[in-house]
Design a protein that fits this description.
Elements: E1 2-5, H1 9-18, E2 24-30, E3 33-39, E4 45-52, E5 58-60, E6 65-70, H2 71-78, E7 86-92, E8 96-102, E9 106-112, E10 130-135, H3 136-149, E11 152-158, E12 161-167, E13 171-177, E14 182-185, E15 188-193, H4 194-200, E16 209-214, E17 220-226, E18 229-235
Antiparallel strand pairs: 1-5, 1-7, 2-3, 2-6, 3-4, 4-18, 7-8, 8-9, 10-14, 10-16, 11-12, 11-15, 12-13, 16-17, 17-18
Helix pairs in contact: 1-2, 3-4
Length: 243
């Protein structure tokens, strides 16, 4: 296996975002490209990303590979890439991943691959009652507004209106019309943790669009698409406990 990226910043950004949710993952490499599916330790959120093979300068894969990787270790190496760097990943002997950064000089790193127990995960294929396509930076602003006043927010969608609001002792609310965001929706409402959403919105680093998919009191899916590259999150709804 030998993979080369001429511009590793996209991969570095995605690994950095994902590492805030999970630490040890199975990184899958096949003829189609590189992908990852992982669930956070609390089993509240799931993350998925895929980079197609054609995005790599070199993509040599003789068979499907599953690499057990500590994301903190990989992230720290990817941070050493500067503007104009390229990066090469090769699976070596004795369960080692060799990583080379080429800029003014060639620098070599290696990290030990790890065995990760647990069932293989797949992103569920759900149908959603509401799909909202909006500017990623606008979504970031609304989530940050809600975090000022609460630890959870409610998504409310109607055919021509989308609202995100947080209520407690204080409140915050943002309303979008169909002139401002793309709405495909009936009537849906669901409440979600802002602690997780604050991590998800970092997907705005890689995409200028956020696609929000949700239904009444059902897990939501947020997609941050960039061409053929996809970063997605699933989040369970926040269920309030009755006294």
């Amino acid at each position: 296996m030998k993979l080369k990226l001429e511009d590793p910043r996209l991969l570095g950004n995605m690994i950095g975002i994902i590492s805030e949710l999970v630490t040890e993952v199975r990184l899958k490499i096949n003829k189609q490209g590189m992908n990852l599916v992982a669930v956070d330790p609390a089993s509240v959120a799931m993350v998925y990303f895929s980079i197609p093979a054609e995005l790599f300068k070199t993509f040599e894969v003789e068979r499907d590979e599953v690499l057990g990787v500590n994301l903190d270790n990989l992230k720290n190496i990817l941070r050493r890439c500067g503007l104009g760097s390229s990066i090469t990943l090769e699976k070596g002997e004795e369960n080692i991943l060799n990583i080379s950064i080429q800029d003014k000089v060639k620098r070599d790193f290696s990290i030990a691959l790890i065995d990760i127990e647990g069932e293989e995960k797949e992103m569920p294929e759900w149908q959603f009652d509401s799909v909202i396509k909006m500017d990623a930076d606008a979504f970031v602003d609304v989530v940050e507004d809600c975090r000022v006043v609460s630890d959870a927010c409610t998504f409310i969608a109607e055919p021509n209106k989308f609202i995100i609001e947080a209520k407690g002792l204080h409140s915050a609310r943002a309303e979008f019309s169909s002139d401002e965001v793309e709405i495909h929706s009936g009537n849906s409402s669901a409440r979600f943790s802002l602690e997780y959403l604050a991590k998800f919105i970092k997907g705005a680093k890689i995409s200028n669009k956020a696609v929000l998919n949700f239904s009444d009191n059902h897990p939501m899916r947020i997609n941050f698409p960039t061409g053929n590259v996809m970063l997605s999150f699933i989040l369970a709804p926040r269920v309030e406990q009755e006294d």
